[in-house]
Give the backbone structure.
Amino acid sequence: MKSRATVIILAMAAVLMCNVTRVGASQPDRKKSKTGSNHRIALVLGGGGAKGAAHAGALKVIEEAGIQPDIIVGTSIGSIVGGLYSCGYRASDLQQMFQSQQWLSLLSDRRDEFRKKFLARDSDSTLYVLGFPVKHKASKKHHKAVGAVRGNNIVELLDSMLDVSPMGYDSVKVWKRFRCVAYDAREHQEYVFDHGSLVTAMRASMAIPGAFKPVRMDSLQLFDGGLINNLPCDVARAMGADIIIAIDLTQNHHEDDDERPSLRETLGIGGLLNWAVERPDLKKYKVNVADCDVYINPDLKGYGAGSFKPDAISDMIKRGEKAARKQMKELRKIGR
């Protein structure tokens, strides 16, 4: 039987298959870039799990170009990076965050004090195996749902980071410039956060099916936004963006429809995974990629949503920076 950690990482990688397919070998035609003067500049950050480390590298270059985005929109890991960036964290802070955190523990609610114990229970009667939660005591608080992890560790981290954010966390100011995307599994549609708790919004946007429990809000059952809109340039346009700088973590991959049924059988995690494999977001993704003014697509081949090892994180940060530097001429025009 696979370990809890392995199941979580495999689930993450499987669901975020929707982040590893880019249509066509060539990039779509871009519009001529405008200068930043008198234009609203948007930063759009795509999803991709651990590959989000590349965002930190790309943002370093964007900052060097003198760009201060008026609008920030993100999906999944892009929502976490974007939300923190909206609160004043800079590329160097985000790089340190990616390199210093025990990501497996953060994303699995692993309890360090139970790490060396095969079986343990806490005061809430949650059962842990080698520190990973495997069964919660039934209660009104804990609903049955796809995914086993509540995301307590990542929520606590984000809460603490907002408490000491460089600009101070002001919900009204943040929502004037920031949006993030989640997927409502009940209505099978996109949900865009534009108010409320920033931590809840970020947590919902990265609720990977099969790994995390959804975030429930009234009648909504919210999962990872990558299931429906992984590069939400359209959301930025709706907010009034004139210029869009998009960082897309998606990698080239040639689809083979004949292999998809066997892939679904291999995953075997349920309807939401089938939804992800069928790629209902594909048409929207094509339009969004074509609509951005500066497109940054780091070469992250060989890495996946679960590549949280320190060496991998460091390399992906460098690759994000390298990809952004290729666009430096266009970025400097915008940053004037």
The chain has 14 helices and eleven strands. The radius of gyration is 19 Å. The CA atoms of residues 25 and 252 lie 7 Å apart.
